[in-house]
Specification:
The structure is a single chain. 17% of the residues lie in helices and 24% in strands. It has 342 residues and is an alpha+beta fold. It has a domain of 131 residues: Domain of unknown function DUF1214, C-terminal domain (Jelly Rolls), CATH 2.60.120.600. The strands form four sheets. It has a five-stranded antiparallel beta sheet. A five-stranded antiparallel beta sheet has the order 8-9-15-11-12, with no helix packed on it. Strands 14-13-10-16 form a four-stranded mixed beta sheet. Helix 1 packs across helix 3, helix 1 runs parallel beside helix 4 and helix 3 packs across helix 4.
């Protein structure tokens, strides 16, 4: 897979470690769990995701999903995309760096390096071996393998990964949060995002790049693990407002012409994939005669590029993989801006 040179940032993992700047240890409640605050929410949400993947053994082995992500809360992470297979390794830094490789494959394959504060410090799409700095003791490596040539080919790409490059975090300890309380914080922030007319993610790469703590908390709650927008390498994500399952909506827009692909995915009120609903992406969508694209929501099986949310009200997320600079510069996402009720 010969793609563009890359090194960018995104998000995932958990635990208090050697961050770029010193910070006070979190307070504990009477039961010994860490008290969640606005200041440490992203650490808590990252810890929750880390815990979920550790259950699958990701701190001891390369945890591969051999099919598309589960629907609903069976998924280990919110807003998983429906266009790639995931594989995860939780690794421990050696001299402040983590190592991994990206093998040559027939399809899209990217690695996201996520710190314990949820920052995607690097996003890599070029084949090769890497040894990259991280601002935490442990890091969460997310592999995304494209399904544009079918699921078996996506699996074959992941099976080529050289796991000997990983220094697995076998001694990582799940952080002592009350995870029911973490879920309550996530619900509060996600509800806020869902009530917005539009929401665009920034995903700062490191802790010192956070300029708006509340925005950063919203991004982690509603879309933990997303990538920073970097022209033709990283990704840009936006969320639509809430939409009714009983209404037929369409959006017609010019092809964004992103480097890798464009994706539109519907989610339930908690930002999980909807059972029976499938994403539409630029690998398979049907274009109009003038080259534009029309996406439909709940408009019937004969509607162009229809996404059926199975009777559930929803929001949808646009993903621009290897984002075109014109999309980065746009004041609003063209797909969301084009939505009309019929």
């Amino acid at each position: 897979m010969n793609l563009k040179n890359s090194l960018i940032a995104l998000s995932i993992v958990a635990g208090f470690s050697a961050c770029a700047h010193a910070e006070a240890a979190p307070a504990k409640s009477a039961d010994g769990t860490l008290i969640i605050t606005e200041e440490n929410f992203t650490h808590a949400e990252t810890a929750r995701n880390y815990r979920n993947w550790a259950k699958a053994g990701a701190h001891k082995q390369f945890a591969m999903m051999r099919n598309l992500p589960p629907r609903g809360k069976k998924a280990p992470t919110v807003q998983m995309n429906d266009d790639t297979l995931y594989a995860v390794a939780i690794v421990k830094a050696v001299d402040g760096k983590v190592s991994f490789d990206i093998p040559k494959t027939e399809t899209y394959l990217a690695v996201q390096v996520v710190t314990e504060r949820g920052h995607g410090q690097h996003y890599v799409v070029e084949d090769g071996k890497y040894n990259l700095p991280v601002e935490s003791d442990y890091a969460f490596l997310i592999y995304r393998s494209g399904t544009e040539k079918g699921i078996p080919t996506a699996v074959a790409g992941l099976e080529k990964v050289d796991v000997k490059e990983f220094n697995f975090g076998t001694d990582y300890k799940v952080q002592p949060y009350n995870y029911d309380e973490v879920e309550q914080w996530v619900k509060k922030y996600t509800t806020e995002v869902n009530n917005m007319s539009k929401f665009t993610y920034t995903f700062p790469r490191t802790s010192d790049k956070v300029t708006d703590l509340h925005q950063w908390n919203l991004e982690n709650a509603a879309g933990w693990g997303g990538a920073s927008p970097e022209a033709f390498v990283g990704n840009k994500y936006s969320n639509s407002p809430k939409m009714k399952a009983s209404v037929c909506y369409t959006s017609t827009f010019a092809d964004p012409e992103n480097a890798f692909f464009t994706s539109i995915t519907a989610y339930d009120a908690d930002k999980y994939l909807i059972p029976g609903s499938k994403a539409v992406n630029s690998h398979f969508w049907d274009k109009n005669s003038d080259g534009s694209v029309t996406i439909s929501f709940n408009c019937g099986k004969n509607a162009k590029n229809n996404i059926d949310t199975q009777g559930q009200d929803f929001t949808f997320t646009t993903r621009h993989y290897g984002v075109n600079p014109k999309i980065i510069k746009a004041s609003e996402d063209p797909i969301i801006a084009g939505v009309k009720a019929k």
